[in-house]
Design a protein that fits this description.
This protein is of the alpha+beta class. The protein is built from three helices and six strands; from the N terminus they run E-E-H-E-E-E-E-H-H. It has helices spanning 53-78, 163-181, 183-201; strands at residues 7-9, 16-18, 86-94, 99-113, 129-138, 144-151. It has a four-stranded antiparallel β-sheet with strand order 3-4-5-6. Strands 1-2 form a two-stranded antiparallel sheet. The chain is elongated and about 70 Å long. The two termini are 45 Å apart. The protein binds zinc ion. Zinc ion (ZN) is lined by residues 10, 12-13, 15, 27, 40, 42. Zinc ion (ZN) binds at residues 10, 12-13, 15, 27, 40, 42.
Length: 227
């Protein structure tokens, strides 16, 4: 059994970790949301120096996830009907930490005709429908919150659209922004599959590291979201 003073690299993410009982200790990804988040499933398994049996499955899973994400992006950009919700970033407060952050939530868009009110963002559509964005979210203390904000409608230009058509175009516009945001996940998954394939192409068993190197850059770094 390897002592916990030895180090090895994770089969799944490449992070350098201590090896209590010869297995990787618990560790996680730092990028929030999506495939590369939470506790790494390579924890409690043999290091890459001794085994690559997790990698083949990881390549399969990431390829499937990539395929699903591409499908999801395409659907967000094209699919809309009278029941489709929009996915948008909303500003929420964590009541326990009092910190605000953006998070993606499914929201419903409701068309409302508003009277012109000077000095507010309702100026955008003084005579047409304005869209209320209604959303609920659960904060870390378990409480549910119902909120309303606004959305800038799709610019109809010379098109003559019904209110429902305008709502659907607005949903597509909003969901398109979310689909663009998912690009970092697509990029990560493509790079991950290529990285793992290259890593196992010439795999041979290696000794564990007895000393932790000062600098180790072998961990896979997921692409950060642009916003
Ligand atoms: Zn890992």
């Amino acid at each position: 059994m390897a002592a916990a003073t030895h180090f090895g690299h994770c089969q799944l993410c490449g992070a350098l970790q201590k090896l209590p009982g010869g297995r990787l200790s618990l560790h996680g990804y730092t990028t929030r949301y999506g495939y590369f988040s939470g506790v790494c499933r390579g924890a409690r398994h043999l290091p890459f120096e001794k085994s690559y049996h997790l990698v083949l499955d990881a390549i399969d899973n990431a390829s499937k996830q990539l395929h699903d994400t591409l499908d999801h992006q395409a659907a967000l950009r094209t699919h809309v009907d009278e029941t489709t919700e929009a996915k948008t970033r909303v500003w929420v407060e964590d009541l326990r930490t009092r910190k605000h952050s953006y998070r993606w939530e499914n929201v419903t868009l409701v068309a409302e005709r508003r009277d012109h009110e000077g000095g507010t963002n309702l100026d955008m559509t003084p005579y047409g429908p304005w869209f209320s964005v209604r959303y609920s979210y659960t904060s870390s203390d378990g409480k549910k919150h119902d909120n309303i904000t606004g959305a800038q409608p799709y610019e109809a230009g010379n098109e003559s659209l019904s209110v429902e058509e305008l709502r659907q175009k607005t949903v597509l516009k909003i969901n398109g922004t979310y689909a663009d945001w998912l690009e970092h996940e697509v990029d990560s998954l493509r790079r991950y599959v290529a990285w793992q394939r290259e890593r196992i192409a010439n795999w041979t068993e290696q000794p564990l590291l007895e000393v932790k190197p000062k600098k180790d850059t072998s961990a896979f770094k997921p692409t950060e979201p642009r916003y």
